[in-house]
Model the fold of this input.
Amino acid sequence: MNERSLHVVLGSGPLGLAVARHLAARGDRVRAAHRGGRADLPSGVEVVSANVAEVADAKRACEGAAVVYHCANPPYAKWPELHPPLMDAIIDGAAAAGARLVFGDNLYAYGPVNGPVK
Done:
């Protein structure tokens, strides 16, 4: 992978926007996927319209990627029903491109803690 490899960021919430901006600032080629096809990103970042919960859209968004950053999340109250198909579609999209997949997770899996998470 070279410095001009394509990095694809799926999701345009706070995490996805921060990842895309960071990659663009360091000079990487960046494509960001957003359902509406619009995102507040630096010039030079390709923004595509894609519902990455749909396999065909995820594959299209990931086409040509060396690295795919999964930063997409459904509404919190609908995670049990929407997360599995979203994850499956994104895995299929990254695999079709032969790309590495980076998952932007959160700390919910740890549950309540009374100290540092190690």
User: Anything to note?
Assistant: The radius of gyration is 15 Å.
